[in-house]
Design a protein that fits this description.
The protein is of the alpha/beta class. It contains 14 helices and 5 strands. Strands 3-2-1-4-5 form a 5-stranded parallel β-sheet. Strand 1, helix 9 and strand 2 form a beta-alpha-beta unit.
């Protein structure tokens, strides 16, 4: 029988994923490692410590993956979803490093000493970048190709160059790190300073790489999700309209996706939902996005009484905030879905939650050349919403790696 345990059922769990198991695992690993240092024989002592670290990091990776699965059920539109997905990959790679080191220590304990334990974790960010270099290269090339196609179809502008900028930073950072790292020389103090600098840089690159990976994974799952066919309302998020007031292909895709859900729900359950067309009027638009969407829906056979206009919003958060107000005017307890472009579902769900509304999204397909660059835009947009949290996580990582570099060159 097919395992359906990972098919997303958004908001189906009332139990928030926690870190109690992780704390227990950490305490157990510390006790075991301490006991090995005190009681084991000298020859294989650190080989057993290394194996303990390998099993511990493997356990942490399993916990992060489990928490990711639970987060999808509890609250998919969360920074935790990104964090769990991105850093589970890194911790799993770190576990493989220690498993390999364990084999080396058991095979040749005289040449693999305790200092390797510290140096391995101190260099884990750089090693992870080396492991993932082929994937980063493919991703960077895809971003550049998609950006060129996007600029040809949509025109220039800073937003449309984000993919190229990030690709250059990825590739340039990787080349810089390894070009500098392999040419260290001088006294032990000078080499330590060099390691501190490169570990600092690697920590920043590691953070960005993990968060980009987590954003792509979370966005992919969110875009493929299909809410249960029991919705009371479907919010259609607006975007730019044509000069004649008709929807652009991007907006038309969102409307068509909402209509398909409406028709599927009506056919399966007999329930007719109400559309909320959400979008104000820009300075260069002849009518509001909401009015344009309403007219399109009526042309497709949707009854006017099944359409509510929300024509004040100017961004995604206001889309959700003002649409919620319209829905609340008609009574509480409604089940809400929203329709937007596939790459935009995750961040839209995040804004819906911020507006105090539990809503599940459906994603409309978009052109292939739009997806990679749009994913980068979503990544940048998400991270800038919680700059303090992101800087705190990044700061902890930097302090961790810099401290390890100092310990590695002063204690051993």
């Amino acid at each position: 029988m097919k395992d359906r345990s990972f098919i997303p059922k958004f908001y189906s769990s009332d139990i928030k994923p926690g870190f109690r198991t992780l704390l227990i695992l950490t305490a157990a690993a510390l006790v075991i490692a301490g006991a090995i240092v005190l009681l084991a024989g000298d020859r294989y002592k650190f080989a057993y410590v290394c194996l303990t670290v390998a099993l511990y990091t493997l356990g942490v990776a399993v916990i992060l993956i489990h928490n990711f699965r639970q987060q999808i059920k509890y609250d998919p539109y969360s920074y935790n979803t990104i964090f769990y997905a991105g850093f589970a990959l890194f911790i799993l790679a770190t576990s493989l490093m220690y498993i390999a080191l364990s084999f080396g220590m058991f095979r040749d304990p005289d040449n693999y000493r305790e200092m390797m334990l510290i140096h391995t974790i101190a260099g884990s960010a750089k090693t992870f970048m080396l492991f993932t270099a082929p994937l980063v290269l493919v991703f960077a090339i895809a971003l550049i190709v998609s950006n060129i196609s996007l600029i040809r179809h949509e025109g220039g502008g800073l937003v449309n160059f984000l993919g190229i900028i990030l690709s250059v930073l990825f590739l340039g950072g990787w080349i810089f790190l390894y070009a500098v790292d392999y040419y260290a020389s001088g006294s032990q103090f000078e080499i330590m300073i060099h390691e501190i600098e490169t570990d600092f840089f690697a920590a920043v690159c590691l953070y960005v790489e993990c968060m980009v990976a987590g954003t792509v994974i979370a966005g992919f799952i969110s875009a493929r999700h299909e809410p249960d066919k029991d919705r009371d309302y479907m919010i259609v998020l607006g975007c730019a309209i044509r000069k004649d007031g008709t929807p652009t292909p991007l907006l038309r895709g969102r409307l068509d996706r909402a209509i398909r859900f409406y028709e599927a729900q009506k056919a399966q359950t007999g329930m007719e939902l109400t559309f909320v067309t959400s979008g104000g009027q820009g300075s260069d638009e002849v009518i509001s996005e909401s009015a344009s969407m309403k007219r399109y829906l009526m042309e497709q056979g949707i009854p006017e009484e099944r359409i509510i206009e929300e024509n004040r919003s100017t961004n995604t958060f206001e889309n959700m905030q003002f649409s919620k107000a319209k829905i609340d005017e008609r009574g509480g307890g409604a089940k809400v879905a929203f329709s937007t472009t596939n790459y935009h579902v995750f961040r839209s769900g995040f804004f819906a939650k911020g507006a105090g509304m539990k809503a599940e999204g459906v994603g409309a397909p978009t052109k292939w050349y739009f997806w990679p660059n749009a994913a980068v835009r979503e990544f940048v947009g998400l991270l800038t919403k919680k700059k303090g949290l992101q800087l705190t996580i990044l700061g902890v990582m930097i302090v961790f790696y810099v401290s390890l570099a100092i310990v590695a060159y002063t204690a051993f």
